[in-house]
């Protein structure tokens, strides 16, 4: 069983930045595909980004392309999501999710086996 923990959420003004981190309690995420999901108020979670186990392949939804960057820290065994130029519509609960396997299909929610508890991101002036 893998315990996944997100951190780094908070309140930020439009145009600001936040960095989310995802870690496995007592372990490493180095061998897993990682997805970042966002749940806006009143909506289902949607995948906004995913990254393969080597860090060489990433995917983003159109609304965050050029603003968000997923990356791996292989020393720490963690995955980060750098979010720049934040907009009010980026507000939501952000979840990190994990599965072991092929990167292709990482934008499919059902592929993920382990989920974090979520971290709130609020973009507001």
Detailed description of the structure:
The chain has strands at residues 4-7, 10-12, 18-24, 33-39, 46-51, 58-60, 68-73, 78-83, 92-99, 114-115, 119-123. It is globular, with a radius of gyration of 13 Å. The protein is an all-beta fold. Strand 5 (46-51) and strand 6 form a beta hairpin. The strands form two sheets. Strands 2, 4, 5, 6, 9, 10 and 11 form a seven-stranded mixed sheet that branches. The protein has a four-stranded antiparallel sheet with strand order 1-3-8-7, with no helix packed on it.
Question: What's a quick, concise take on this entry?
Answer:
With 125 residues, the protein is mostly beta strands. It is 0% helix and 46% strand.
Mean pLDDT: 96
Number of helices: 0
| Unreliable stretches covering 5 or more consecutive residues | none
Fraction of residues in H or I helices: under 10%
- DSSP, total strands: 11
How far is the first residue's CA from the last residue's CA? 40 Å
**SSE order:** EEEEEEEEEEE
Overall geometric form? globular
Main sheet overview:
7 strands, mixed
Structural class based on helices, strands and sheet pairing: mainly beta
Taken as a percent bin, the fraction of beta residues is over 45%
Structural Rg? 13 Å
Pick out its properties.
125 residues, seven-stranded mixed beta sheet, 11 strands, single chain, four-stranded antiparallel beta sheet, mainly beta
Topology:
Blueprint: E1 4-7, E2 10-12, E3 18-24, E4 33-39, E5 46-51, E6 58-60, E7 68-73, E8 78-83, E9 92-99, E10 114-115, E11 119-123
Parallel strand pairs: 2-11
Antiparallel strand pairs: 1-3, 3-8, 4-5, 4-9, 5-6, 7-8, 9-10, 9-11
